[in-house]
Structure formats: structure tokens, C-alpha cells
Amino acid sequence: MTTTTDALHLTAGTAAAGPYALEVTPESAGWAHSGLRVLELAPGASHVLETGPDEVVVVPLQGALDVDCDGQRLQLAGRPDVFAGPTDFAYLPLGATATLQSADGGRFALCGARARNRLPVRYGPAAGVPVELRGAGHCSRQVNNFATADVFEADALIACEVITPGGNWSSYPPHKHDETSDRETELEEIYYFEVSPGPAGQPGLAYQRVYGTSERPIDVLAEVRDRDVVLIPHGWHGPSIAAPGHDLYYLNVMAGPGPERAWRIVDDPRHAWIRGTWAAEDVDPRLPLHQPRHQPVDQPQNGARP
User: Fold this and answer.
1) Is the dihedral of CA 67, 114, 128, 43 positive or negative?
2) Residue 293 lies in a domain
């Protein structure tokens, strides 16, 4: 049976639960490892989070946040919105109780993964987030690698943010990571989208493609809008297409069975040739998008990365 768009595209609000504007758990997604919640807090409000079997990285999408956990207080400066550059973040271990409080209110992503080992509570500064420019021309995008395997220590969780200028394609060429080999790691993946409005506040849109093999069929072509989610249990995924005039943000949350925590992907061989054209093109001059002046930028990465 082929899994289709209706099952894997969660439009904004349809996966709300209790205090969360979005709640995706391994159980609700029908898989075993990765999850994502989005918490919206009114000014002065607080929320008690029980991490349970998950490790959690708290990422401000909009606003500042105080996090109290295991006797520590982490003060997250946050950011005005997801297009304003990388943010600081907090790591919370499995089996922890945390109180999240925001003086001015905001929206916060709780990226989760089923964990085996309990690591300490930690603060991740915005200045320590590597900003990478990938691709070239209309395949240019910016990646904020705040919790990738080679940047930040975690037990199972891998997470990053991708900014795609309006009119560009990212997550291209299509790639997959759904089996374990020396070239690939098995990872479930969540895409959480935010789309910048037009100059007069017009709502934007974008597109996400996911497709499979004859052995593991999947067929998704989703028209995504602000705060939608696409679940990717397996298969080739990409492109993520930003409509002209509307910059596209997505948060990637990944985890798998381990025990190795790594992000290895393989390209669809029918489309991998596009990488060979990038050396002759410049990176989109709009990138890095809204980047803080103090933040270092990695050189364009045109190797086998999504």
C-alpha cells in the first residue's frame, strides 16, 4: 500500500493537542524515534514539560524563554522570527522535568528523540551555530546546523534549520536516509515549515515532494503553508520549493534506531547530476538571509549533503 499526501501532510492546527499548537510523537507518526511539539506561550505564561523517554532540544521560533531544569536556569534570548538568524537553544535530557516561562510570550519548538543515555542539561549559544551555504544558483539555501551530529552532542537527535530564498529549490537533488549502510543511516524525519508573507501580509506557500521505490512505495506532493508539517518515514525527499516572493523556513528533526548517531544520505541517481553544475554558479547573493553580523559563515558546501 502506498502512503500518500493525506497521511503525511499535517496542515497547521490539525495536529494540535492540549497546550501544543503542534504535537507529533513517535506513536502519532506511526514510527519509533522522532517527535516535535510547538508550544505557544502568552506573555508571562509558563509550561511544565516532562521529557519522559525523550531527549529534547528547545528552539525559540519567536520570542525569548527561561528554562529551569535539573537545578539550572537557562535564559534563551531567542529571536524575533525564524528569518532573523540562528537562535540560542536548550538541551534537556530524558527523564527530566523542566519549567518553560516567557515574559513576553512566544512560540517554541520542542524537538524530541527517544534516547538511551541521559546527558546533562546544556545551553547552546547562537554564536556557536555554524551557518552553511549549500548549492548554487536557484538551488542555493542556508543551513543553521545547531544540533547536527558533528556540531552538538546528543544521544539520538539530529536537527537543523534550512532557509530557502523565494523562488529557490532546496532538499535537492532528492535524497534518502532510510536504511543502514556505509553510505546511509536510517532516520525518520519531520519537516516543520514557516513561510514568509508577501509585502502586504499576503500568505505564502511552498511545495514538498516525497516519493519511494517499488519495494517501499510512498507518494507525497504537498502544498505547504505557514506552520504545516510533512512526515518522512522513508523514501526520496525533495525538492522543497519556495514560491517567488516568499522565503521558506523549515526545521528538520531526525532520529533513528542507532546506535550510531550520523546523517548520511544518498542522492536519487536520476537527479544527482545537478551537483556537478554548481561549481560553475555562484551562491544566491541573498544568502546568508538576515544573518547576525557576528555569525561566521561556512563556505558553500556542494558535496553530498541535502
Assistant:
1) negative
2) no
